[in-house]
Design a protein that fits this description.
It is found in: Cytoplasm. By secondary structure, this protein is α/β, with parallel strands linked by helices. It is built from 13 helices and 9 strands. The strands form 2 sheets. A 7-stranded mixed sheet has the order 5-4-3-6-7-9-8, with helices on both faces. It has a two-stranded antiparallel sheet with strand order 1-2. Helix 1 packs across helix 2.
Length: about 325
């Protein structure tokens, strides 16, 4: 859920907003779920495009203020739902809205979260080692200070795709306890070669991995996709924006499977049912993801990695839901 912010007082701008609205058409008169509300950019876009009702979901309690403000402005057309999008079905049931026309996702961490040092998502600004989207449960500090070295290495390997995950995990366990983002970043860098001029900071992959693990982001994405499949009306539209390869791989494989185009990505996860008995629940829009244009990436560099995948719900029944996201990714050999 990346939004641009050129200055501390500049408005947040949702990535690929016109493309998301186009993929959701027709929007006028539709019932929409903005499953990753954030600062409300998509919700405002849907309201401006004529949606009848928009439900904004967010697990981050700091999003509630913007949600309540939009409720007051919308004349009853918008409602903020505090919670995880993986719990979309229960949230919609509580709101009295069984089925919807559009579900939009904007996965990942927002610029608001990254820019707030006290949230501990980024090492660009030193702050407490937190990373929790809900500000509850296990923090990043809890994980790196208590987990076994092998578990830390596995998390950094799988979710950060860091080839030197074992060296990084060793440096973390030797240097702990950690309380701040700066201290952890320095420990990670100590285990890796210095970066070149045009390379990302060596700590980036490890921070991404720890954040994904602490918030169970991939499991939550899969639960959200399954919930959207179950609650979209026939002909309803799904729009999913991702920002890194793990997110995009999961969305692509889910939609490819549900469209009846793919084989089981893993023997551990029943994401694809027997195609002789299960009709496709989605029709994929286009053959390639939509990416941001030159004008948008020039104005907002964070949009460079954004990919939009869209699909239309068929009239087939929803498939049996896979248990979790584990096994959907082919782990490279160490």
């Amino acid at each position: 859920m990346i939004m641009s912010m050129s200055a501390t007082t500049a408005p947040h701008v949702s990535v690929l907003l016109p493309e998301v609205l186009a993929a959701s058409a027709p929007v006028e008169g539709a019932v929409v779920v903005d499953a990753t509300f954030g600062a409300g950019g998509y919700s405002r876009g849907y309201l401006a495009a004529g949606a009848a009702r928009v439900y904004g979901i967010d697990r981050d309690p700091t999003a509630a203020e913007a949600g309540r403000a939009l409720e007051a402005e919308s004349g009853g057309r918008f409602r903020f739902l505090q919670g995880r999008f993986g719990d979309m079905e229960a949230l919609l049931d509580a709101a009295g809205e069984p089925m919807v026309d559009v579900v939009a996702f904007d996965f990942g961490v927002s610029s608001m979260q990254l820019d707030q040092a006290e949230r501990g998502f980024s090492f660009r600004h030193d702050g407490p080692l937190d990373m929790r989207m809900e500000r509850a449960g296990m923090s990043a500090a809890d994980f790196v200070n208590t987990a076994e070295e092998r578990e830390i290495a596995d998390v950094i390997w799988i979710y950060g795709e860091e080839r030197a995950s074992r060296r990084v995990a060793r440096a973390i366990t030797r240097g702990r306890p950690f309380e701040t983002t700066a201290a952890l970043a320095e420990a990670v860098r100590s285990a890796l070669p210095p970066r070149g001029r045009d390379q990302i900071d060596p700590a980036t992959r490890s921070f991404q991995a720890i954040r994904i693990h602490v918030n169970d982001e991939l499991g939550e994405i899969l639960r959200g996709l399954v919930a959207a499949e179950r609650r979209l009306k026939p002909g309803g539209r799904l729009a999913a924006v991702t920002f890194h390869s793990l997110e995009d791989r999961l969305v692509k494989r889910f939609l490819t499977a549900r469209a009846g185009r793919g084989a089981n990505p893993s023997r551990h996860v029943a994401i694809v049912a027997d195609r002789d008995r299960t009709a496709p629940s989605f029709a994929i829009a286009g053959t390639r993801p939509i990416i941001a244009g030159e004008a948008e990436t020039a104005a907002n560099p964070r949009a460079r990695s954004a990919k939009l995948r869209a699909a239309r719900r068929t009239d087939a029944a929803a498939w049996d839901a896979p248990a979790d996201a584990q096994g959907l990714f082919r782990e490279p050999a160490r």
